[in-house]
Design a protein that fits this description.
alpha+beta
């Protein structure tokens, strides 16, 4: 009988530990978000929206948190069987950054690539956007706490991708809202 109670106590400990871990799991940047962001990067590379052969638009003056100069393009890509609208914003900064400097040598000033991908059924409450912040090499950027920035980035928080973009005109989380229908 002694072993029976030990097993129940141990099993209960695992259940409590499992429940506590589930509550502590981050709302974004988990293994599924990371894997999906990698597939998205491949689709963006194939569509020439990122990488060494990326299409570039005219650089324009940016603002925090993105960068002093930005370059944005949009279109559609297919990721893991889902075709959706995508907005790719390249974020430039550093000493000497200007619209002209970026146009002449974008790689020198590229600091990050932020992406919004419309993933049907992913997050209806927030217009189904999948959010990602990549480093120039395609690896995932991290926040100061070390969380990888992919998925429902900062959902429910007062600052971050979703909180900021909820304020966009048109109700679609896109500041230039007439670009994506």
């Amino acid at each position: 009988m002694k072993n029976k109670y030990l097993m129940v106590a141990t099993l209960s400990g695992f259940l409590v530990a499992g429940a506590a871990w589930a509550q502590m799991a981050p709302p974004f940047g988990g293994p599924d978000d990371v894997k999906y962001s990698q597939a998205l990067w491949k689709a963006l590379t194939k569509a020439h929206m990122v990488g060494s052969h990326a299409i570039m638009s005219t650089p324009y003056k940016g603002q925090a948190p993105h960068g002093a100069v930005l370059d944005a393009i949009d279109g559609t890509v297919k990721v893991k069987g889902t075709t959706g609208a995508v907005i790719v914003k390249r974020n430039y900064g550093g000493p000497g950054v200007s619209k002209t400097a970026v146009a002449n040598n974008p790689g020198k000033y590229l600091k990050a690539i932020t992406v919004m991908f419309k993933r049907k059924g992913y997050d209806p409450e927030d217009k189904d956007w999948f959010w990602v912040k990549y480093n120039p090499d395609g690896s995932l950027a991290k926040n100061p706490k070390g969380m990888q920035l992919a998925g429902k980035v900062a959902k429910g928080k007062p600052k971050g991708c979703i909180a900021c973009h909820k304020a966009a005109p048109g109700g679609d989380f896109v500041y230039n809202f007439n670009r994506i229908k």
